[in-house]
Amino acid sequence: MFRSLFLCCPGMKRRAKGMGATQSSSLVSSASGSAAQLPEYNLFSVPLEILEEIFLNLPPHQVVCVCRLVCCQWKEAADCESLWREKCRREGYRLKEASKVPSDWRLFYFLCMKRRNLLKNPRGENKMKDWQILENGGDKWRTEGLMVPHPNEKVQTSFVTSYGMCKKAQLIDLAKEGYNSALMDKFQPDIKVTDWYAPRFDCGSEYSIVVQLINGKKEVVKGFKPDTVYFEQWNDQQWNKMTHVFRDYGPGVRYIRFIHGGKDTQFWAGWYGIRLTESCIEICHREDT
């Protein structure tokens, strides 16, 4: 099927003649005069809606990187807004607010398809794996179960700090995660940061977070560093959410550095400091943050 479609595209006439000139000439000479004079693309052109349906059943990267380059007709079909809007509908990629409409459905589709948490081991289910320990004060970092339920019932573990400052970090290489420089520089998709933290009810504690967007020279392009959060003793020990969205940060971002941590404020031996879990960094479409 694809070979037939490839050959019948108007933009591929010269290639088709080169591949079967002898056979083609004999067929034309045996045809009636009126039929032989008809343009080739009128005989074989494929309606746009049929091409769109074919493209809807192909891997999206093949549509953009292969099919789009075949001829003008295929390029038109691959660029059509209705194709990517329908692809989003079929695969369940919907905006949080139905009243919003993406300015670019193809970009929206690819960002939704790739969207995931770029931080590894965000809940401590694999102990301290994938985290770089920057500070390991008091009785050091450890992981344990929750003292109170998290809003996400799937979260059952957390990182726990001690009486000396405890900080840990991850550095995300965007290219290795599939976000190339062209995407980051031209479209500058939103970068959404979330982090969950909670104190113990019987001990005061503090929490801090720093997130940096870094260029290829390892220089900070933009940063997020809110004030340290303090909890007093005898609190409700509920989970709190820290959220920030980087937007319009300019070209050049190649890495994201995430750092967070804390400690208890009463210098008690053991693990009475801030508790952390469900940290997340996502690359999102602006209408979907």
UniProtKB/TrEMBL annotation:
Q: Which domain of life is it from?
A: Eukaryota
For the FBA domain, which residue ranges apply?
Answer: 108-285
Q: Which GO terms describe its biological process?
A: ERAD pathway; glycoprotein catabolic process; SCF-dependent proteasomal ubiquitin-dependent protein catabolic process
| Record-annotated F-box domain positions | 40-87
Q: Which Gene3D superfamilies match?
A: 1.20.1280.50, Galactose-binding domain-like
Sorted alphabetically, the Gene Ontology cellular component annotations on this record are: cytoplasm; SCF ubiquitin ligase complex
Pfam family, any one: F-box-like
Which key words are in the record? Ubl conjugation pathway
Single GO molecular function: ubiquitin protein ligase activity
Protein name (Swiss-Prot/TrEMBL): F-box only protein 6-like
Which species does the entry assign this protein to? Gouania willdenowi (Blunt-snouted clingfish)
Q: Give the gene symbol.
A: LOC114466682
